[in-house]
Amino acid sequence: MKATHSLMTEHEDINLMFDIVGQVYRQLETSGDIERDHLDAITEYLKGFVDKFHQPGISMM
Question: What domain of life does the UniProt record list for this protein's source (predicted)?
């Protein structure tokens, strides 16, 4: 897989997660409540993404 394709896929994944977080936020605004499982799933995804693609001590700058 080309690096650009991989980067585009990662970008799509991040955008999808932002959409999901936005939906959860709107649910919280409307009902004042959200399902704990949704927050747990978002947190686990973000932890996995960061662990996989952003290793400590390695800077992209």
Answer: Bacteria
